[in-house]
């Protein structure tokens, strides 16, 4: 006979293993389907360049993703510089965040079965929509872990270690991307301070302060070890992103209908829970203690932070993973409010959640909407290992290339072969953010990526363009660059480079595969 204790352990292990395997392999599978080069490979070459001692901020301009680049470099170090390492990174992250969420659902006193259903829905809508490491997702999930650990810290005052972990995860979120962590800090800090003040938990102020100081000091020492000047870090990672954010607030415009249609399954659970809380308040019906309310309030601030972040970013929607989280809170709220019908309420909500999850699964995972592949025939994709063996398992089809994938692969491969024969140092301007890793030469790209909306580097009209120009010139002098190349078929605008030079300082000409700027002088 198996004891009850052993039976509980077996059941717990079964559900944990099932959820973990699902979270890992669903992301692992969908990561292979198609590419949108600038997003799919955003941290590929930058992770590889770190292994060559080319450090973000110091050696190439980045406005976010500092943390993600170093994590990817670690995966490349362990598993080799290849596509497999890249998707293991995101798949493992999907697994880790799913385990945290599973524990959250169990803390709501859901059964293992019910918690697993909620978690599987979460894992389907989490990292899988991208499949590959992406800065906004890392930032959002680090913040989610930080918030969940913060809840544990507040409910377990004797376990001071939770405070350190929460603050550390918050810093990881900030170093992945400055927002949504900045929004969450503004919303969550007053709640935490007020709660600790009324609880007279003065000892927690000390652990928060010491943990924060320790993490800041360690980070400054890391910058010094990497020879990253703090002023440069501030310019690239703090000042310039703030300029981008301010510009987006100026042009922020969204209609109520558009907002509600996109986020209705996030908004409705929140509105229903708020309505019930307000109703009970006026009825003077004390349905929940302060700890329950605090938990839900912190989840609410997290949700608001992520919604604001989503509205301000220009990416496809990536926050639908909030739906299972908010449905779980709605489930708990309604079942507490209507105890006699709680069984039927849970069944209806779970059925509805599964239906919503399937809807977004088809749109974002099957049709790869996040990477702009929804109008592409994925069946026409071909093996990316035809470009290079390190890209094995990826199925290549690019929505930005007008023509069959085989033509694009031929052009990329031919360009790489010619680059390998160059004798001098060059600088390559390209959004194929894996080329550095498959050539024998350094591409010396001055920025991680190149967009014309000012999100990857300052354009000429930006007041920080002079800082970028000086940075660009320093890299050219340091690497002794004489020629700057563009891939001809990629059709990136020449002004990515030309707007930072006087006309007499550049000689422009075209070759079969490249467009070339020859540098005559630097001012």
What's the helix and strand layout?
Elements lengths: L3 H27 L6 H4 L3 H8 L14 H14 L3 H25 L4 H14 L9 H21 L5 H16 L1 H21 L3 H24 L4 H21 L5 H27 L7 H23 L9 H16 L4 H25 L15 E2 L11 E2 L8 H16 L5 E4 L5 H4 L26 H15 L3 E5 L7 H4 L7 E5 L3 E6 L4
Parallel strand pairs: 3-4
Antiparallel strand pairs: 1-2, 4-6, 5-6
Write a structural description.
The protein has 523 residues and is mainly alpha-helical. It has 2 domains: 4-30 and 62-366, no CATH class; 402-519, no CATH class. The chain has 19 helices and 6 strands. It has helices spanning 4-30, 37-40, 44-51, 66-79, 83-107, 112-125, 135-155, 161-176, 178-198, 202-225, 230-250, 256-282, 290-312, 322-337, 342-366, 405-420, 435-438, 465-479, 495-498; strands at 382-383, 395-396, 426-429, 483-487, 506-510, 514-519. The strands form 2 sheets. It has a 4-stranded mixed β-sheet. The protein has a two-stranded antiparallel sheet with strand order 1-2. It is globular, with a radius of gyration of 25 Å.
What oligomeric assembly is this protein in? single chain
Q: What general outline do the C-alpha atoms trace?
A: globular
How many H/I helical runs?
19
How many domain modules? 2
Helix/strand structural class: mainly alpha
Low-confidence stretches: none
What is the topology, as strand order, of the major beta sheet?
3-4-6-5
- Separation of the first and last Cα atoms: 83 Å
Report the order of strands and helices.
HHHHHHHHHHHHHHHEEHEHHEHEE
How is the main sheet built?
4 strands, mixed
Helix proportion range: 55-70%
Mean pLDDT: 93
Strand content: under 5%
What is the rounded Rg?
Answer: 25 Å
Total beta strand runs: 6
């Amino acid at each position: 006979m198996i004891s009850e204790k052993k039976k509980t352990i077996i059941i717990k292990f079964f559900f944990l293993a099932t959820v973990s395997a699902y979270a890992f392999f669903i992301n692992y599978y969908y990561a292979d389907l198609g590419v949108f080069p600038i997003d799919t490979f955003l941290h590929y070459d930058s992770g590889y360049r770190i292994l060559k001692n080319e450090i973000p901020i110091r050696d190439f301009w980045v406005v976010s993703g500092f943390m993600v680049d170093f994590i990817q470099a670690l995966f490349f170090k362990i598993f080799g510089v290849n596509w497999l390492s890249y998707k293991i990174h995101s798949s493992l992250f999907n697994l880790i965040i799913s385990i945290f969420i599973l524990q959250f659902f169990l803390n709501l006193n859901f059964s293992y079965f019910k918690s697993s259903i909620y978690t599987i829905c979460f894992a389907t809508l989490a990292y899988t929509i991208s499949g590959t490491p992406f800065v906004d997702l890392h930032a959002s999930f680090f913040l989610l872990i930080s918030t969940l650990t913060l809840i544990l810290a507040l409910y377990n005052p004797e376990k001071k270690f939770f405070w350190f972990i929460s603050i550390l995860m918050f810093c990881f979120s900030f170093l992945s991307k400055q927002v949504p962590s900045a929004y969450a800090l503004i919303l969550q800090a007053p709640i935490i301070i007020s709660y600790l003040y009324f609880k007279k938990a003065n000892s927690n102020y000390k652990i928060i302060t010491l943990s924060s100081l320790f993490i800041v000091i360690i980070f400054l020492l890391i910058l010094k070890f990497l020879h990253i000047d703090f002023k440069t870090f501030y310019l690239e990672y703090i000042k310039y992103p703030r300029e981008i954010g301010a510009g987006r607030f100026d042009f922020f415009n969204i209609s109520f209908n558009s907002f509600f249609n996109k986020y209705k399954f996030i908004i409705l659970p929140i509105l229903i829970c708020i309505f019930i809380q307000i109703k009970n308040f006026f009825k003077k019906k004390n349905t929940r203690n302060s700890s329950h309310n605090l938990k839900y309030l912190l989840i609410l601030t997290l949700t608001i932070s992520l919604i604001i972040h989503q509205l301000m970013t220009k990416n496809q929607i990536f926050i639908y993973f909030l739906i299972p989280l908010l449905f779980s809170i709605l489930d708990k709220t309604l079942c507490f409010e209507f105890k006699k019908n709680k069984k039927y309420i849970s069944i209806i909500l779970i059925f509805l959640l599964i239906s919503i999850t399937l809807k977004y699964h088809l749109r974002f995972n099957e049709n790869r909407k996040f990477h702009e592949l929804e109008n592409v025939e994925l069946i026409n994709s071909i093996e990316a290992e035809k470009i290079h063996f390190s890209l094995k398992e990826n199925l290549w089809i690019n929505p930005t290339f007008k023509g069959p994938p085989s033509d694009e692969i031929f052009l990329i491969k031919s360009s790489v072969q010619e680059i390998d024969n160059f004798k001098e140092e060059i600088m390559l301007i390209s959004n194929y953010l894996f080329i550095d890793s498959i050539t024998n030469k350094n591409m010396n790209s001055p920025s991680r990526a190149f967009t014309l909306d000012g999100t990857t580097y300052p354009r000429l009209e930006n007041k920080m363009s002079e800082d970028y120009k000086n940075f660009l010139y320093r890299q050219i002098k340091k690497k002794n660059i004489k020629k700057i190349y563009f891939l001809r078929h990629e059709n990136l605008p020449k002004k990515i480079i030309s707007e930072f030079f006087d006309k007499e300082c550049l000689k422009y000409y075209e070759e079969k595969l490249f467009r070339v700027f020859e540098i005559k002088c630097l001012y």
